[in-house]
Fold this sequence. Notes:
The complex is a heterodimer. Chain A is an all-beta fold. Chain A contains no helices and 11 strands. The radius of gyration of chain A is 13 Å and the shape is globular. Chain B is built from no helices and 10 strands. The interface of A and B includes residues 6, 40 and 108 of A.
Amino acid sequence: DAGVTQSPTHLIKTRGQQVTLRCSPKSGHDTVSWYQQALGQGPQFIFQYYEEEERQRGNFPDRFSGHQFPNYSSELNVNALLLGDSALYLCASSLMQGGNQPQHFGDGTRLSIL
Amino acid sequence: DQQVKQNSPSLSVQEGRISILNCDYTNSMFDYFLWYKKYPAEGPTFLISISSIKDKNEDGRFTVFLNKSAKHLSLHIVPSQPGDSAVYFCAPNSGNTPLVFGKGTRLSVIA
């Protein structure tokens, strides 16, 4: 039973560039949430996708956008990268109608901005 | 303002003793409280949870206690093992709202 998978594992970009991160949810899950974890902090919620639509959004600028595909996989796009976007980006999946079930996390993509 | 606070950034415990990790929250709408464990270079792994209708939940060596009136929860690990060394995050939510994470507590279990 495959868990949540994220790609790539590491990425180095320069300021002003754009980046796309990818996530495949755990088998049977239909909802994908993205989190940003800066050094020394807990993960912060970016947004959540369900039925190919953004359902909830955290306090992140419009430079952060996403997409969910019919197979429930998801992408996170960040435009006009800033040094402060350097962080670990985590994808979590869950079942929308699953009640109080925990989200399952991937191992993340480490993004470094030079 | 932080809705979830884990006031101890780190904790060292001897192998075999009890580890107690604490978490305070401010949002009274939270009704489901989760603990995640994170090893370096891995994503957070779900450890144990508790619903607001309970005050204790136990799973093997792990027990979570919830004090709703004090808006406080704690995770007890007994006996602690070296493999428990990791960063522990408290993450409450309500319904399908996003998880709100604390900053984490780094637990070191010394053999």
